[in-house]
Design goal:
Chains A, B: Keywords: DNA-binding, Repressor, Transcription, Transcription regulation. Chains A, B: This is DNA-binding transcriptional MerR regulator. The structure is a homodimer. Chain A has about 140 residues and is mainly α. The first copy, chain A, has five helices and two strands, in the order H-H-E-E-H-H-H. At the A-B interface, helix 3, helix 4 and helix 5 of A face helix 3, helix 4 and helix 5 of B.
Chain lengths: ~140, ~140
Amino acid sequence: MSGDAGGPYLRSGQVAERAGVNVQTLRYYERRGLITEPARSPGGHRAYPPETVTLLTVIKAAQRLGFTLEEVAELIGDGRGGRPAPDLRARAQAKIAEVDARIAELSAVRQALTQVVSAGCGSLTRCACPDCPLPSTDLAE
Amino acid sequence: MSGDAGGPYLRSGQVAERAGVNVQTLRYYERRGLITEPARSPGGHRAYPPETVTLLTVIKAAQRLGFTLEEVAELIGDGRGGRPAPDLRARAQAKIAEVDARIAELSAVRQALTQVVSAGCGSLTRCACPDCPLPSTDLAE
DNA sequence: TTGCATCCGGTACCCGGGTACAGGCTTACC
DNA sequence: GGTAAGCCTGTACCCGGGTACCGGATGCAA
């Protein structure tokens, strides 16, 4: 808020606080290639440009969309590095397919669970109910 | 196949093969308390009763229902140990609630992803589309 | 100039469910 | 009695996403 004279660089603790992230996480993301290595003070302390905070919120948004850090790294790295930029739209569509598959799996599990409940199985090992669904829990896996 | 004279005990490799499980997994389950320590041959080799194979298929069935190994251990351990036996039906109902919650989360993610797709965002970092949903991806988390 | 907060690098640990490897011992069969 | 397959214990590693701790160096303000 006060001055930004000479260069508004932030130290790691400031970036972490503004982005709502642990300081260790910052270095972790650096190792994973999600954020580029920032400039350093003469003593070796990291000096981040303020955009890093924005970048971190973008990373967190992408994570919430179900992308892994590796995928986020790819998505962020487009433009730089010369590799063909991965299209976010295409990636999002592929991710929707993944999510749908996962939901389908969970629905099958849910189905099997309701069968267990309605059949009245009382115990895994000694189920006394007739037509116990336990041994035949296939889930088409 | 041949004789079962004196005791139809199985060695770890036989149990593993019949249950479709790795031998290491057997010992892992033993450490985790899912299967009790079997008898030993004079030389120290494990000698399993044949029921162990059935138990392993039960464990795998429970896993497919979404129970963690710790939960399976509890469910199996009922009857023995004197603790009040956890009711499988109740556990299954609770698990259904968990599954439903997870499905709801994934549906929200799916929703957000379709917004990204339909808004036409091309890039995480430099999205040129109007009313880009990326910064406001809340998912009510 | 001194004191304290912060940062540094490196390493180890956490969760869950296993898998793999090393170096030795047993068992089974011929 | 030889030989190979199988088993033993103990330990380390894998995935993903971080978190924690250590001893030492820096930064900043009074």
